[in-house]
Design a protein that fits this description.
By secondary structure, the chain is α+β, with helices and mostly antiparallel strands. The protein contains five helices and eleven strands. The strands form two sheets. Strands 1, 2, 3, 4, 5, 6, 7 and 8 form an eight-stranded mixed β-sheet that branches. It is globular.
Length: 203
């Protein structure tokens, strides 16, 4: 069975399980409250290799928000986008030159709400390996590929906490070859890990 079919079957099975998920980057209901969340989407692009990889970006240091952080390609869903999938594919094309036609979309995974006001939909897709991706210098400083098995392995993540705006925020961190994968990106990876059956821990 090819990678895309294996992932599609695992995701479908995973969505039938009742599992613990990280739904937001805050546990304090006062922070989200009645906040109107803007639609956003990210592309979880998995390379079709014998040992699949995962495409991540390093955001430009010149950006006003989340400068230098590791992230999935993605961003706000525009009014011109047909849906979240279209938004994720457009953003990935703009940020790293990934052609939408090269992505075999598997489906969407669990939404994630941020205290900054976004409703993020992760879009899972399979892409050919070794595409000549070119980062858009205004948004992306670099991109890299991390082994999918490493990114999803519970043994490679550490839970931490910080004090922020009067409440304690918990987050996860994954280190790979000097790259710090944390916050929203790590949470989405952990949710995906649980959906695909890599671990079943409750949050």
């Amino acid at each position: 069975m090819k990678l895309a079919d294996r992932l599609r079957a695992a995701l479908q099975e995973g969505h039938e399980r009742d599992i613990g998920l990280i739904a937001s980057d805050t546990r304090d209901p006062r922070i989200l409250g009645d906040l109107a969340l803007a639609p956003a989407a990210v592309l979880v692009a998995i390379t079709d290799r014998p040992e699949p990889g995962l495409i991540l970006t390093e955001r430009s240091a010149a950006l006003r928000k989340h400068a230098g952080q590791v992230a999935f390609p993605g961003g706000r869903v525009d009014d011109t986008d047909a849906d979240e999938i279209a938004g994720a594919l457009r953003e990935a094309h703009e940020e790293i030159g990934l052609p939408p036609s090269a992505v075999e979309v598997i489906g969407i995974t669990d939404r994630y709400h941020t205290f900054t006001g976004f409703d993020i939909v992760p879009v899972l897709g399979v892409i050919p390996p070794d595409l000549p991706l070119i980062p858009h210098v205004d948004e992306v400083a670099d991109w890299f590929e991390v082994p999918l098995a490493f990114a999803l392995d519970p043994a490679n993540r550490v839970q931490k906490s910080i004090e922020f705006q009067g409440s304690e925020r918990h987050y996860y961190e994954i280190m790979w070859q000097g790259r710090r994968i944390w916050g929203i990106t790590a949470a989405i990876l952990i949710n995906l890990s649980r959906r695909l059956g890599h671990d079943h821990a409750a949050t």
